[in-house]
Specification:
Structural class: alpha+beta
Strand content: 15-25%
Shape: elongated
Distance between the termini: 26 Å
Order of helices and strands: HHEHEHEEEEHEEEHHEEEEHEHHHHHH
Largest sheet: 10 strands, mixed
Number of domains: 2
Length: about 475
């Protein structure tokens, strides 16, 4: 019987103890591997620097991190709105290559609805292709593409939906839907009367953008409840003396609606807010200076993002941030300490597992002193007995380590589902990094070292004494 056969025979003889030791090693390794994997992939997900935009403009009161999480990852609530005139000014700025307005407010069955312009799809307001350098990129050199249908008309109640929305809802080309505030699970659900028609479905981007529904920004402003809020904010700003963007706005010949013109429901009298032409285009009575948006994605010219951020942050109307830098700060500040704590816990679990190996094998050796003496009497050397015990400890560590590696990546798969569900982007949970293999190798080494103490006890076993007893 060779060394390995003898080792496995001894492990089977005390199967319960062996399996419990395997389990402790596996759990310690799985925890450590899951932490390493989630931290590594989370860094790629949240601290990425390959955004197609280098400036995000939003409200000064909403918080920079919240603005980035809301606009880029669709996490959290809608930030405080800013005036559409901020976007109009940015378009004229010599440091701006392109800018895209982003109006978040409503949802359809939990999927967010974003009011924007055809520039999202690389088109101007006449639905003609924009120059290459003026086309929106959600990642560097990555743009939206229509998989089915066409782009929405900039002045109609039309919509283009993300790939996941098309896959998980009943929406398809030609479908009509209504927008609502709140969710079907909450007590508050306010559905608007306006209906949008789905005219296009986007190709998958494997980002949070796949979970969005895009509509013309004018159609988002045309909802009576939205127009009422916008007019109210405009009145407040006017009384506060902050109506400084009038000269930049395109005043419509119609007056905006006042609060006294509306039924509080705001749905039955949309003629106060807009009028539909015969071809379905929206004639909005609300002037552009009173429109509200949530954020603006901006790409600067020639890396002038810092100049642009400084300029915007020194004005009273909005705040600007570099989204890549903001997410890096968040990830380093929030996750780094958590990672160190969790890795310390997993290291402690691994040490406890190593102690378990030591105790298990030590007790096994104590119970098998006569058997070891017989092996010695049959010609096994002290070194062979020592090797036998150390190999047994090493096998426990190796099998437990490999099982822990597999379980750790299984936990990573669960994390991937979580990120896909709540962030819209997944992680590469199948990738095995070098640091994980090093960790498993260290665990095997620790197991071998843990086997030395009981191995030395077996090494010193006096043959004659235990054969007689």
């Amino acid at each position: 019987m060779n060394l390995l056969q003898l080792t496995f025979k001894q492990m089977r003889q005390r199967a319960l103890s062996t399996w419990l030791t395997f389990l402790s090693v596996m759990l310690g390794v799985a925890l450590a591997i899951a932490i390493l994997l989630l931290y590594r992939e989370g860094d790629k997900l949240f601290a990425q620097a390959d955004f197609g935009f280098d400036v995000l403009v939003a409200s000064k009161t909403g918080g920079k991190l919240n603005s980035v999480l809301s606009a880029v990852y669709q996490v959290g609530g809608a930030p405080t709105p800013i005036s559409y005139s901020v976007y109009q000014d940015l378009v004229k700025n010599s440091d701006v290559r392109w800018a895209l307005p982003w109006a978040l407010g409503d949802n359809y069955r939990g999927y967010r609805i974003i009011g924007t312009t055809p520039a999202l799809l690389g088109l101007d307001d006449e639905l003609q292709p924009l120059p290459e350098e003026k086309r929106f990129e959600y990642r560097l050199n990555r743009r939206f593409a229509i998989a089915e249908g066409r782009a929405f008309h900039p002045r109609k109640f039309e919509a283009v939906i993300g790939a996941e929305v098309a896959r998980r809802t009943d929406l398809a080309i030609g479908s009509r839907f209504k927008a609502s505030h709140g969710s079907e699970q909450s007590e508050f659900l306010d559905e608007h009367d306006e209906q949008w028609e789905v005219v296009g479905i986007l190709e998958p981007t494997h980002t949070a953008m796949d979970r969005l529904i895009f509509i013309p920004i004018i159609s988002a402003q045309a909802v009576p409840a939205h127009a009422e809020v916008a007019q109210g904010i405009a009145e407040i700003r006017k009384r506060a003396g902050h109506d400084d963007h009038d000269d930049h706005a395109d005043h419509h010949e119609h007056d905006g609606p006042g609060h006294d013109e509306h039924d509080h429901a705001g749905h039955d009298h949309h003629d106060h807010v807009y009028h539909l032409e015969e071809d379905g285009t929206i004639d909005l009575h609300l002037p552009e200076k009173d429109w509200l948006i949530s954020a603006i994605f901006v790409r600067s010219i020639g890396g002038r993002s810092q100049n642009l951020i400084f300029e915007i942050n020194n004005q009273p109307y909005a705040a600007a941030v570099n989204p890549a830098w903001e997410m890096r700060q968040f990830f380093e500040g929030f996750m780094k300490g958590s990672r160190a704590l969790l890795l310390s816990i997993s290291a402690l679990v691994t040490v406890v597992a190593a102690v378990g190996i030591l105790v298990s094998i030590y007790n096994s050796v104590s119970a098998r002193l006569r058997e070891i003496a017989i092996i010695r009497a049959l010609g096994a050397t002290r070194m062979r007995v020592l090797t036998l015990i150390c190999v047994e400890a090493g096998i426990v560590g190796l099998i437990g380590g490999i099982a822990g590696l597999v379980l750790g990546h299984a936990l990573g798969a669960v994390g991937n589902l979580f990120f896909q569900r709540y962030v819209g982007e997944g992680i590469n949970w199948l990738h095995v990094a070098d640091e994980e293999l090093v960790y498993v190798a260290v665990v095997v080494l620790i197991a071998l070292l843990a086997g030395i103490v009981p191995a030395l006890k077996a090494y010193r076993t006096p043959v004659a004494t235990h054969l007689v007893s």
